[in-house]
Amino acid sequence: MKKTVRLFPIFLTVFALSACQAPNPPISLDTSPGGSSASVKTQSSPGSSQAAAPSVGYDTLLASTTERDNTPVCLTPEAPGTQTAGNEYATIDYSNAADGYIMVNYLGSNHKVKLQITGPDAVTYTYNIVNGWAAFPLSAGSGNYEVSVCENIEGTRYSVAYKGTISCPDVSQFGPYLHPNQYVDYNGKCKVVTLAANIASSCKDDLEVVNGVYNYIIKHITYDYQKADTVKSGYLTNVDEILLSGTGICLDYSAVMTSMLRSQRIPTRLEVGYAGEVYHAWISIYITDVGWLNGIIQFNGKEWELVDPTFGASTNEKQLKSYIGDGSNYATKYIY
Q1: Comparing C-alpha atoms, which of 210, 234, 218 is closest to residue 293?
Q2: Using one digit for the tens of pLDDT, what is the confidence trace for 16-54?
Q3: Is the dihedral of CA 288, 292, 295, 298 positive or negative?
Q4: 71 CB-near residues (< 8 Å, 6+ apart)
Q5: DSSP state of 183
Q6: All domains of the chain, ordered by start, with CATH?
Q7: N or C terminus of the chain with fewer C-beta within 10 Å?
Q8: Which of 83, 32, 9, 25 is nearest to 311 (CA)?
């Protein structure tokens, strides 16, 4: 059911993520769509005094003008088949679990299939899957993961086509946040990757890259009211389409920025959860010698402050600081 939540002068999108609990078939998956209208006006980021995004394009790759190498690095998930699980309905390839992801290939003929992954933190992630290989992050780190493939019977009722447990003892701390996956889908041919490299071409360090990419996004992407009203469960972002259209919802803002920063070798988490009472999306980044900066940040000339891309594009500085404060209003539920 759609829900519209008032927050300052803007509306933010509510996303409904599917989940099923029962271990035996048939099971029921809640696939009700979520969404809310959003009203935003693009403006420059509050208090920014550093590295505003240069006027760059995304068709020609610019060389770095600083000591920092801006060459894009787009890691490609693979399924070499050295460690697998599954049956006639699905293959789970966890050969590269140490790099922070597994590959799943649905082999059946059902038109509506869900993948569920439950990690050592007991959080269950639910994805839509189709035939063909797709990558999924191991967001809970090292440990055992229960993987289930569920085929639709009718409505929200599903049967378990495959269920098993895989052992992933050495998951990289940063691997899940440097590879593409279903929610952060990009490759070396994407325009967002070239754009990120071009923005980074004049940046001296990773902090300047984050600031430049952030400023570009909040200045060039505005909120899509109609899309927010009609978005359905399982929605996935096409990052280049968002870049070219110049509009998107909060998941789009976050996926575009996450793709850009990962391609510049900056570990970045796309997170969804609650901003107050609103289901929302934002990002966290890792900076060497600083650590994880939780929630997208903005440099004001003296310090970094917690800001997410949607708030940054829609809210003035006073309202932003009043709401976000020290980050306690954010409660992370899923990490991609």
Answers
A1: 210
A2: 222 222 223 334 343 333 332 222 223 333 333 334 434
A3: negative
A4: 64, 197
A5: S
A6: 6-24+32-73+183-335 (3.10.620), 84-172 (2.60.40.10)
A7: N
A8: 9
Going by C-beta distance under 8 Å and a sequence separation of 6 or more, which residues neighbour residue 6? Answer: none
Q: Give the per-residue pLDDT at 232.
A: 86
Gap between the Cα atoms of 3 and 115, Å rounded: 26
Query: If you search the block for the tokens 């402050």, which residue do you land on?
Result: 305
Handedness of CA 253, 254, 255, 259 (dihedral sign): positive
Place of tokens 């469960």: 233
Residue 256: the pLDDT is 94
Instruction: Give the separation between CA 334 and CA 136, rounded to whole angstroms.
Output: 13
C-alpha 278/C-alpha 3 separation (Å) is: 9
pLDDT under 50: residue ranges of the chain: 1-54, 297-306
pLDDT in tens, 135-172: 999 999 999 999 999 999 999 999 999 999 999 999 99
Residue 214 neighbours by CB under 8 Å, 6+ apart: 45, 257, 296, 297, 298, 307, 309, 312
**Distances in whole angstroms, Cα of residue 279 to Cα of each of 34, 87, 303, 309:** 9, 36, 28, 15
pLDDT of 272 reads: 84
- For the chain, the first-to-last Cα distance in angstroms comes to 24
CA–CA distance, 171 with 159 (Å, rounded to integer): 30
Q: Where are the beta strands (DSSP E) in the chain?
A: 6-7, 10-11, 27-28, 84-86, 90-93, 101-106, 113-118, 124-129, 132-137, 143-154, 157-168, 222-223, 247-248, 268-275, 278-287, 291-293, 297-299, 304-306, 330-335
Classify residue 51 by its DSSP letter.
-
Task: Label residue 126 exposed, middle or buried (CB < 10 Å: 0-12, 13-18, 19+).
Answer: buried
- Reported residue count of the chain is 336
